[in-house]
Amino acid sequence: MLFNSAEFLFLFLPIVFVGYFCLLNLRFVLPAKLWLLAASLFFYSYWELSYLPLLVGSILFNFYVSQILNWTSLSNTSRRYILAFAICANIAFLGYYKYADFLLENINLAFGTGFSLMNILLPLAISFFTFQQIAYLVDSYRGEVEERNLVDYAIFVSFFPQLIAGPIVHHKQMMPQFASIQNSRIDPKNIFVGLLLLGIGLFKKTVIADQFAPWVASGYASTEGLSMIGAWALSLGFTMQLVFDFTAYSDMAIGIGLLFNIRLPINFYSSLKSTNIGEFWNRWHLTLTSFLRQYIYIPLGGNRNGFARSNVNLFIVFMVAGIWHGSGWNFIMWGVLQGTANVLFRIWKSKNLSMPPLLGWFLTFNFINVICVYFRAPTFTDSTNVLKGMIGLNGIAPSTIEAGLQGLEQIKVLLSEVGADWKYLLWISVAFFLALGTRNAMEIAKNVEINVRTAFYTGFLIGISVLTTFDRKDEFIYFNF
Questions:
Q1: At what angle do helices 126-141 and 171-179 cross, to 10 degrees?
Q2: What is the DSSP string of 411-463?
Q3: Which of 170, 171, 285, 325 is catalytic?
Q4: Which of 212, 122, 163, 126 is nearest to 1 (CA)?
Q5: How far apart are CA 466 and CA 138, in angstroms?
Q6: How far apart are CA 32 and CA 367, in angstroms?
Q7: What is the mean pLDDT of residues 299-320?
Q8: In 3-state terms, what secondary structure has residue 326?
Q9: At what angle do helices 171-179 and 150-158 cross, to 10 degrees?
Q10: C-alpha 64, offset from chain centre
Q11: Are 445 and 196 in contact (CB under 8 A)?
Q12: What pLDDT score was predicted for residue 413?
């Protein structure tokens, strides 16, 4: 069930909302929680029922391990072994479903073996709920959490607005909110702001991001021989699709959470306005960045063991980020390039060097645009083909262009190389303006005034988005991770 589908917007969400607050109004707290939990599990299993036992099994395993880690009778050594076992079990669980076929494929390639691929279907959201629960186990071991209620823990993991594609939430952010008496009552302001964020996210997804989807898919279906103009048009189109798709889901998740009086953490904050790669990662996928810093970078030693070692730790973090996103050499290369760029930026800063903000933005944006090719290309060969085109190895323009770039007809010929037309340029321009020249959803929501004009604006966004999505149901890109 998609956030941008009619069944979610007009059936599932209203029914869950009314049922939840009706039960709370009657002071049936446990039934209300069970209702929300059941709704979240239904939401998850709507795509594929076979996914549900995996999620439930993961929740039960990690909850009961966390209970064991809280036993005071256990020695620290025993607790350390239990934690190590549980983390390994979670990583093995994630690795089997996400990386088994990738490993078999590369073993066959390296050693000439003929192992058959298992063609394992990737369970929805497995990366998100696995990382979230690993963090919970580590905090249980540290004595920072002691949750005794299975229902509360299950809601923390499976709360449907953030379950599929984040934000990755921390137990300290979520559990106290569900326990708050104040949150058991309908809050008109939260509903108003929540619907506004839902509308903004819907618009970004259906009206902006999904416009690029067919063009990008067509371009990446045949990457060999792309000209420089075609390759850059393709890369820019996917970068805009990616940014608006990711941020749309986050905006909608935060908005839906507010309807239930739950404040989810900000995940994206005008990332394309960044003037250096460090700033980019302080604006992009903030909850993943926080997880990697707290549970990988710091345990590796952080910056406590000298500048050189801290750079090695930083590089490892981005390698993990690349592997987390997907199985394939494309994602490994993405991690290598991100890690290298961030290490070079830290070295640059350590020398007290600087550059004009506009130049910094230009370099940062183009770096992000280039490495997004690895994020989208179906194979490593496809990503190489696109990058070859971007540096002009296949010529500047398609061979069908013989004289100049004049008129719409020739522009159409240029863009037809990636299955697009002149409207493609218009949408890229619109996307650039919205990403760089306007406030982001969080800024709008922070200062929003509850009045008729804002209500009309919200209704317009939701209405135009629903009308746009009736004839198509494009999934969110992060569903693949």
A1: 90
A2: HHHHHHTTT--HHHHHHHHHHHHHHHHS--HHHHHHT---SHHHHHHHHHHHH
A3: 325
A4: 163
A5: 42
A6: 48
A7: 93
A8: coil
A9: 120
A10: 28
A11: yes
A12: 54
DSSP string, 51-112: GHHHHHHHHHHHHHHHHHHT-TTS-HHHHHHHHHHHHHHHHHHHHHHHHHHHHHHHHHHHH-
| Lookup: tokens for 301 | 């030693």
**449: Cβ–Cβ under 8 A, 6 or more apart, which residues?**
none
Residue 450's Cβ-count burial label (10 Å; 0-12, 13-18, 19+) is: exposed
What is the torsional sign of CA 333, 338, 344, 346? Answer: negative
Tell me the C-alpha distance between 158 and 152, whole Å.
10
Find, among 97, 119, 47, 8, the residue nearest to 481 by Cα: 97
Check pLDDT > 70 for residue 348. yes
- Omega before 167 cis (within 30°)? yes
Q: Are 112 and 39 in contact (CB under 8 A)?
A: no
Burial of 50 (0-12, 13-18, 19+ CB in 10 A): exposed
Q: Are 133 and 147 in contact (CB under 8 A)?
A: no
Across 460-465, average pLDDT: 85
Candidates 259, 192, 267, 249; CA nearest to 3 is 249
Give pLDDT tens digits for 355-381.
999 999 999 999 999 999 998 899 999
DSSP string, 126-154: HHHHHHHHHHHHHHHHTTS-----HHHHH
* Confidence (pLDDT) at 328: 86
Euclidean distance between CA atoms 42 and 35, whole angstroms: 10
Long-range contacts from 375-378, C-beta under 8 angstroms, 24+ separation: 375/238, 375/242, 375/325, 375/330, 375/331, 375/334, 376/216, 376/220, 376/238, 376/242, 377/220, 377/223, 377/330, 378/220
Q: Are 413 and 400 in contact (CB under 8 A)?
A: yes
Active site includes 325? yes
Which helix (H) or strand (E) element contains residue 194? helix 188-202
Q: What is the pLDDT of residues 52-95, one digit of tens each?
A: 999 999 999 999 999 999 887 788 889 999 999 999 999 999 98
Q: How big is the chain, counted in residues?
A: 481
Structure tokens at 402: 């013989």
- Return the amino acid letter for 444: I
The rounded distance, in Å, linking the Cα atoms of 431 and 237 is: 9
Phi, psi of 215 (to 5 degrees): -65, -45
CA dist list (Å): 62 to 97, 170, 359? 18, 15, 47
